[in-house]
Amino acid sequence: MSDTTAWIDAYMREIDTLEFGEAFTELFDQNTEMIFGTARVRGVEAIKDFFVTIDAPLITTHETVQTWSVEDVVILRGEATVAKKAEPDTVIRAPFTHIFYLDQNAEATVRVRTLYITAGPVITDGTLI
């Protein structure tokens, strides 16, 4: 997964569908740490579980707006369209940033050692509360 656009698209698709496959397997391992706001989780299975916990009650679509790569860092800026499954017509758009610290020492794979995610600001009154 050396092409940044391809692995980011696959990663976002797996988050949106909560069907985790090759993107998560190739990006994360048991040592990957994800910091999402105040939450800290370690390991690919814990990262999957985290996304299921926050996204299962929602319909979410992530759109990549920009990416930047500098050496072993990839910064992704995007917007998520989010609605409760119970109220699909009430939709918000939330900005987000993902910062991937990569370990490219392994041959032909891109592993994420640390992932920082910020989301918002989001006005959630009456939408997601």
How would you briefly describe this protein structure?
The chain has 129 residues and is α+β, with helices and mostly antiparallel strands.
How many strands in all? 6
What's the end-to-end separation, in Å?
37 Å
If you average the pLDDT, what whole number results?
88
Helix percent band: 10-25%
Low-confidence stretches: none
Radius of gyration: 15 Å
Count of runs of 4 or more consecutive helical residues: 3
Apparent shape: globular
User: What about the largest sheet?
Assistant: 6 strands, mixed
The order of strands across the largest sheet is 2-1-6-5-4-3
What structural class is derived from the secondary structure elements?
Answer: alpha+beta
Strand content: over 45%
H-E order:
HHEEHEEEE
